[in-house]
Amino acid sequence: MSRRTRPLAVALALVAVSSFATAAHADTSDPVSPTPVPAEPVPGPPYDAVIDLTFPVDGPVSLGDSYHDPRGGGTRWHKAADLGGANAYGLPIHAAYGGTVTWITGLDGAAPHATAGYAITVSGDDGRRYSYMHLGRQDGPPTEAYAHGIVRGTRVQRGQRIGFLGYSGNASPSWPHLHFEIEDPRVTDPYGTHRMNPYPSLVAARERGDLPLDGRRFLDVPATLAHHDAIVWLADSGITSGCGARRYCPADQVTRGQLARFLASALALPPAANPTPFVDVPSTHTHADAIARVHAAGIARGAADGSYGPNRAVTREQMASLLTAARGDALTSASATPFSDVDPASVHAPAISALHHAGIVLGSNGAFRPAEPVTRAQMASFLQRSFSVPAA
Ligand SMILES: [Zn+2]
Q1: Which of 27, 102, 152, 228 is the most interior residue, by most CB within 10 Å?
Q2: 91 alpha carbon – ligand 1 mean position (Å)
Q3: 36 C-alpha vs ligand 1 centroid, how far in Å?
Q4: Is the separation of the CB atoms in 250 and 224 below 8 Å?
């Protein structure tokens, strides 16, 4: 998109570069004894490619494509993105990508950088460098520019708060803004530098809702969701990392294969010595390893026909049986369930009863809905109630 708006000066510079390259090539060519051409370095993505990052400002800011804007009276170009607004001072800045802080100014009594001001560079885990400039104000304290604990060498997670938007360095107090740069050694921009234009990636992040959300691990798990705390516990415990791209997919049904994986993780089950005996779980199945672990631990027994049904949605009554097996609950058929819709003769009734007495399944209006599928959100609560208290 920015190619359309490239200034004439850039186009002329490109012409100059390509004619130089042609001349250089002619000088070194040898028509008599061709020498092997050195392998071209693997080209990186285009300088204006959309890359996967989180929008770094938590709050309303304006954003334009200013990569090719001249600076210094036309002697250089901006080669960055500015995110700001008249009232944007103090908005939290979050890491667009995880990595390590390799440059940070104005700490330990040093003055902030004359032009960049209070500034942070994070060497990203993706090999790129992300720089955040003009944080705080030049004569203000570092605590107004940086989040607590951010120093050189700090590991930052993607989406973690690292600082506060400002106008330090040579930025104007009338328009506080974050000057955001991306550098990628594999990329060459039209000016021959290794900068990337952040604008297309920032627009894409904003459009897909990849915004910094303090304390919110998953974009699709708002604090108001009934099972929010359980899902956060599940993630904090390392039992889930979500369904990809900072999402948990709370409304998705849990398959029996996925449940095996959650249980194997929650119980830290050791690898199984043998593959599963289940006829419908080949070793190539995504959850074959987890199913083998829960089978070896005596938790999953499968059906009479030797199948496990790894891709079938797990029902609430099946989950009750798997959870009691995983917890090692004592099952007695004597204690009937209080649920009107649970057949006392059901093979799952003792498990449902045991979980009810343990306060793990609550039911609703006296019903348990044993044949209903379990959503990933509900499963988080079941798992938290089952495993968050250390076994006695
Ligand atoms: Zn800028």
Answers
A1: 228
A2: 17
A3: 44
A4: no
Collapsing DSSP to helix, strand or coil, 381 comes out as helix
CA of 305 to the centre of ligand 1 (A): 66
Give the end of a domain, one of 172, 207, 242.
207
Whole-Å CA distances, 387 to 27, 52, 287, 356, 358? 72, 35, 21, 15, 12
281 domain residue, yes or no = no
- 51 and 197 part of one domain: yes
pLDDT for 15 equals 36
Q: Please count the other Cβ atoms lying within 10 Å of the Cβ belonging to residue 192.
A: 10
Domain boundary among 158, 183, 207: 207
6 C-alpha vs ligand 1 centroid, how far in Å? 17
Which token pair is 100?
A: 């390590």
Whether residue 65 sits in one domain with residue 202: yes
| The pLDDT value given to residue 279 | 94
- pLDDT at residue number 237: 77
Can you give the residue range of the structural domain that contains 153? 43-207
The pLDDT score that the predictor gives to residue 6 is 41
Given a cut of 70, the residues of the chain with pLDDT beneath it are: 1-42, 213-217, 245, 333-336, 389-392
The answer to the question of residue 386 being in a domain is no
Asked whether residue 334 is domain-assigned, the answer is yes
Q: Reduced to 3 states, what is the DSSP secondary structure of residue 123? A: strand
Place of tokens 């106008």: 167
262's tokens: 């959650």
* 25 found inside a domain: no
CA 374/CA 341 separation, integer angstroms: 17
Number of separate domains in the chain: 2
